[in-house]
C-alpha cells in the first residue's frame, strides 16, 4: 500500500544542520513550511547528494529573477510537527512556477508509521540551502590525502601505506 503523501506547500525557511562532534555528527534538514515544521534526519552522504542535485538543477534551469528572500526559521515553535529518518529523497523542478520540489519519505518504517511529505521552495531559498548544506558537509573531520578516510582525533594508520605511516 502506498504511503499517503502530506503536502506542506511553500517553504518559508529551509536549513541544513549537523548535531554533535565531528565523527559522531547526525545531519538533518529543518523546514518551516505552510503545512508546519519538519525535522528530517538524513545521512551525511544524502545531504551532500541533495545539495549536489540542487546545484545541478539550479544550473540546468538558468538564472531567473526571484523576489522571495529566505527567512530564518521561525522560533515560534521549537517542536517539529513531523520528525523522521529519511529513507528516500526526491528532487524536482516545476518550470511553470519556477519552484523546486522536495519530497522526503520514510519508507522503512512500519506501514502505520510511514511518513511522506512534499513541499516547494523558491530559487533563492534552495540556493541558500544548497550552499549551507555543502558547508555543513565540508565542516567535518579532515580526510586522509592517501586513503580519503576521515582522520579522527587520535592517530590515523593509513591502510594505503600498510600502516607504515601514521598521520
Shape: globular
CATH topology name: Secreted effector protein pipB2 fold
Radius of gyration: 18 Å
Strand content: 25-35%
Q: Architecture, according to CATH? A: 2-Layer Sandwich
Count of individual beta strands: 7
How helix-rich are the residues, as a percent range? 10-25%
**In terms of per-residue confidence, which ranges show pLDDT below 50 for 5 or more consecutive residues?**
none
| Major sheet: arrangement of strands | 4-3-2-1-7-6-5
**Helical run tally:** 2
Distance between the termini: 51 Å
Number of domains: 1
Structural class: alpha/beta
For this structure, what is the CATH class?
Alpha Beta
Average pLDDT, all residues: 86
Helix/strand order: EEEHEEEEH
| Main pleated-sheet profile | 7 strands, mixed
Q: In short, what is this structure?
A:
This protein has 167 residues and is an alpha/beta fold.
Overview of the structural elements:
This protein is an alpha/beta fold. It has one domain (6-142): Secreted effector protein pipB2 fold (2-Layer Sandwich), CATH 3.30.2450. The protein has 2 helices and 7 strands. A 7-stranded mixed β-sheet has the order 4-3-2-1-7-6-5. Helix 1 (44-60) runs antiparallel to helix 2 (123-138).
